[in-house]
Model the fold of this input.
Amino acid sequence: MAQNDLNKVPQLIIIGGSSGSLEATFAILSVLKPSFELPIVLILHRNNVADNGLVNLLSMKTHLQVKEADEKDQIEPGWLYIAPPDYHLLLETDGSISLDASEKVHYSRPSIDVSFETAAVAYGKDLYAILLSGANADGAQGLARIKENGGTVIVQDPKEAFVPYMPEKAMELITVDYVLDAANIAALLNELTS
Amino acid sequence: MIATENLENLLLEISIRYGYDFTQYSRASLQRRVASFVAKERIHNFAELRHRIMNDGHYFTLFVEEVTVNVTEMFRDANFYKALRSTVLPVLATYPFIRIWHAGCSTGEEVYSMAILLKEAGLLQKSLLYATDINQTVVEKARSGLFSMQTMQQNSENYIKAGGQGEFSAYYSANYNLARFDESLSSRMVFSTHNLVSDASFNEFQLILCRNVLIYFDKDLQNKVLETMDKSLDSLGFLALGSKESIRFSPIDKQYIQIDNKEKIWRKTI
Done:
């Protein structure tokens, strides 16, 4: 990594995905190096039943500690936070997480846009956002806000995405920084901490 | 998007002018609500927003309606209502008179759900349900007992999942696109505005429900509100919060035990 890129190490990675995104999430998380400690916030559209299934599944794929986010959680290195079902997850400027039970956005709660938009404000250029497979326009607007605020935006290559609609929607709206398949998204993340 | 400093100043001015203190609300959510209010009202800049709010009480009321969250369903979280039915109601049944407080009742769906639960347990006649909210408009809507027919499909599904014992449609009569709920339910309800941030406790209750309200408050305000509710709760009373809320790390924690390790229901031990 070039010397002048060193100050570009982000403080937070945020990942959003809908249908077909779980496989890509696994593919990324499972190859992160043990030295990778940047906190990750994960927003996946899923049904509204509260259970620990997703936490357990993800725990098997990553060395990061995994938890469903609670309100006021302080974001710590080495942790992966999952948005709980039926709540929006918002990022605060003090590095904590808020939850919100307001209207669905793009028929979704959690909504990727809500998390991305608040992360854009809270983290500015210290943010990497990744949008994965999905059959929904959620996330595109949020990526635009992240871009405006100086963050780095990555979409899963529509050719690889199980459902290409979501990354395509984002690419129509903004010029994304990277279009990568899951393996190369993981490689890019690994580079950040090398 | 309103600049942080402008929003902070506006919240202070609102607090002085109207006595509604939003300064301890979680910021990311509040910012988002204010931004959506500004877009909806086609407000061009901060000066215009400030001017209209500070000079027009009706406009301020509209502002309160928009920035407070009023999304609710009947029997939201089936497992929560199952826990109420199986664990809390049998205890309440032993009292000669039951007083319940819905703090932050929004448009009333939760109050009607509770009344139905009490009716099916044969307890409604000796119960009073106090329902309060900061937002006068939603309190009036709740009091009317009228709900959109469009939501009845979802409410009915929730009712069945929550272990409902009858026909959900027996509790209302359909009138065009409105469902009018039975007066036997609403006759046991008392509605009023109440601001959890500034108003004191006002009664002794055996059960207080305050679900998905604390998530919008900062830690200090959460603790203050929990203390208000603690003062309003009888000894051995129950406190029910939203599925992502907790009394852990709050000053009242020591006097309570969680009755069900999954649902967010606590019982006062003193």
